[in-house]
Write a structure and sequence with these properties.
Layout: E1 2-7, E2 34-41, E3 45-51, H1 67-77, H2 79-86, E4 92-94, E5 105-109, H3 120-128, E6 132-136, H4 146-164, E7 180-184, H5 186-194, E8 203-207, E9 223-227, H6 235-249, E10 254-259, H7 280-283, H8 294-312, H9 315-323
Parallel strand pairs: 1-10, 2-4, 5-6, 5-7, 7-8, 8-9, 9-10
Antiparallel strand pairs: 2-3, 3-6
Helix pairs in contact: 1-2, 3-8, 4-5, 8-9
Amino acid sequence: MHRLLILLSALFLCAADRPASPGPAATGTVAARAGLRVLTHPTLGEIWLVHPVVRGAVARPGPGPSGAATAAIARRFGDELAGRFAALPYALAEDAAFGGPPAPLVILTPGANMGGSAYRRLAEDLAAHGYVVALLHPQGSPGPSDGRYGEAASEIATALGFLTAPDAGWSDWIRPGPVGLVGHSLGGAASVLALASAPGGSAAVNLDGDFAGAAARPAAGPVLYLIGMTDGETDRSRERRRGVWATVSAGSREAVALQLAEMRHFDATDLSLLSDAAPPERRHNRFGPAEPGLTLLRLNALTVAWLDRWLKGDEAAWARARANDPQFAEAQTF
């Protein structure tokens, strides 16, 4: 096993050529970066499939967050942020023609009490880079519990089987073979657990997802762990996380942990684009000090680079992401 554990004191700059603003309104006159299909599974419910589109496709308003999803965000971050989130534009083309050859599949799992609709920017970015992305629980996921980790991992396996079945109808879209499992918070930990039931060569990205003690086990494939900072975290908490990571990374072909100094837990969601709308007391330890949306774009770029390396065989992609930060440090420990 080749294990690389990296602690960063500054954010990566690999998305510097992308705008930090939420982006253009989806009015029908904007070229779409990705397409959106709404699928229904008998037990999982809705799955939003975000995919590459043919050149020149135009964006049209598609489904947004439900009233329940918006209300949950309002309870956590206030009415102003929730209202702006409900109106947040995306350059997605609903029911647009698929573009490109069959693409690797990425399954994107939200955090507990979050909805996949809060990760549309990451899904759009992945699709624009040649991936088909399945957003699970788009309108809200169950709350946290010790048993929920295993349940979420099972749901990922169910979605994988559903989308890759011979009669699923997506064989011209989804390339057989390794898949990317990406998740935030509890969904990130579940994505690592789900590697055990994914095809060989699959890779995972865990966006600031802690592991319940019972859920920690050696990962069955390459894992990227993007960790935020928490003001006031105790030495005991850090020691526990070090021990859990030692368990998870053991046996992995490559396990990389990057701790980003300006990242906080919800910077991995589209709410990061609107963090200035949250009252100061609700921003603390939930969003970092960077310009709204900037940390999200950099996390997205790291996620794309990791998947490009393992699912597309582009070794240079991850090397470029590493080299892009002048303060990159070689293997250190928690």
